[in-house]
Amino acid sequence: MWVAISVAVTAVGYLIGIALIPQIVMQRRESGATLAWVLLIVFLPYVGAFLFLAIGTQTIRWRRKRRERAERAVAPGLATSTLPVRPFEVLAEETTEPALGEPARDLARLANKLARHSCGGNAIELLVDAQATFAAIEAVIARARSHVHLDYYIWRADDAGRRLRDLLVAVARKGVEVRVLVDDVGSRAAGKAFWRPLVEAGGHVGRFLAVNFVSRWLARGFLTVAIIYAFSEFSGAHIDPAVSLGFALRRVMRLSDMFVYWIAQFGGALIAAALAYALWGSEIALGASHPGPGYSRGVAFVAEIIATFLLMVVILGTAEHEGQVGKQAAVAVGLTVATCGFFIGPISGASMNPARSLLPQLLSGEFDLLWIYALGPCIGAALAVAVMALLCGPPKAGEMKAARGG
Questions:
Q1: Are 346 and 292 in contact (CB under 8 A)?
Q2: 3-state helix, strand, coil in the chain (%, to 5)
Q3: Phi/psi at 204 (nearest 5 deg)?
Q4: pLDDT, tens digit, 9 for 90 and up, residues 91-117
Q5: SS3 of 148, please?
Q6: Which residues neighbour 77 within 8 Å (Cβ) at sequence distance 6 or greater?
Q7: Interacting residues of 87 by C-beta distance below 8 A, sequence separation 6+
């Protein structure tokens, strides 16, 4: 009877979860937040459903209300504005689509679909050469007397990016209003330290589609839990060359087996990185691990050692007590991955996995950071093995099972 009740309760929970997943996806959240909510409902259907209904849907309502309040705040000014700053809707009536040429008509239709109505009085110049484009942008900025508003998906902290930023700093010091809006992921390399001179000069910098680190690392932790649950019986579900090295140093895995695991791990990473490179080109380096803004390579290296040390200690510790912990070791490992991401992610990206970081960096030509993510995780895993040997002595059967599966 109790078995039937538990099966029925579980089935109802998953039915509720299945019903909520389309609603989560349709809310168009940041992708990491969407994945985190879906995985939470899959693994903890009742808890996930309660939290989503309690706070998840409210977030969308709060965002909508903030937008409505902002529109109400600016509406009186638009309604009473003078000729030079009349509402977009009025200006749009002066340049109707039938009166425009074919390219301009297409642009007007696109603008009408994406935002407010398009308006007249604009000029478009098509620039296809990078040097000519930057020269034109810099010339317009240098002539600015009232304001400069820039919107970029990718702003790199390279020579061109610094030159354009310094020009913005110069015009901001002259009293020109400078506002810059950049994509949080595409412009990740240009962090707070990069923009500090502009902010100190009176400029304003905003980031859109900001990465939610909580949802990002919870999603990675939940995915780790799922993979361990699914594949630990077959192979131990290492998915990490540093973890395989730790098991080999702990003498629960033969070196020959470790190299076989490495071939599989780096091979899988190569396939994933090649697919990402085919889709996004060298920009996949933006998604690979790298030191956070304001942190040196040495600090990132030490952070990788610490994060992998903690991860390996948890893996070996839960395997040491396999009889008491059992499959729940997957939850402990997944939460460790998420927790390390919370406090070490902003420093080094919290890779803890050479395969995850090295292949994207190699394919994108970013060779200067390879040593951090090749050596850091391996040193951290080796230190964890040494500590566990002192604390727990020789390995037990649970560690051998965790290393090889079964």
A1: yes
A2: 70, 5, 25
A3: -125, 135
A4: 445 555 555 666 666 766 666 665 555
A5: strand
A6: none
A7: 78, 79, 81
Does the pTM surpass 0.85? The reply is no
From residue 94, alpha-carbon distances to 89, 101, 111, 117 in Å are 9, 15, 16, 12
φ, ψ (nearest 5 deg) of residue 274: -65, -40
- C-alpha span between 370 and 341 (Å, rounded): 20
| Contact partners, residue 293, CB within 8 Å, separation at least 6 | 189, 190, 191, 192, 193, 194
Radius of gyration of the chain (CA): 27
C-alpha span between 398 and 316 (Å, rounded): 9
Q: What is the pLDDT of residues 304-321, one digit of tens each?
A: 999 999 999 988 888 766
DSSP state of 185: T
Element (H, E) at 207: strand 204-208
- Scan for tokens 């091979």, then name that residue: 267
Q: What is the token pair recorded at 88?
A: 């977009």
For 289, residues 6+ apart whose C-beta sits below 8 A from its C-beta are 348, 349, 350, 351, 356, 357, 369, 373
Of 183, 179, 178, nearest to 208 by C-alpha is 183
Which residue has 């990185």 as its token pair?
273
Neighbours of 251 (CB within 10 A): 15
Q: Are 351 and 377 in contact (CB under 8 A)?
A: yes
Task: Provide the token pair at 277.
Answer: 């490179």
Three-state DSSP at 181 gives strand
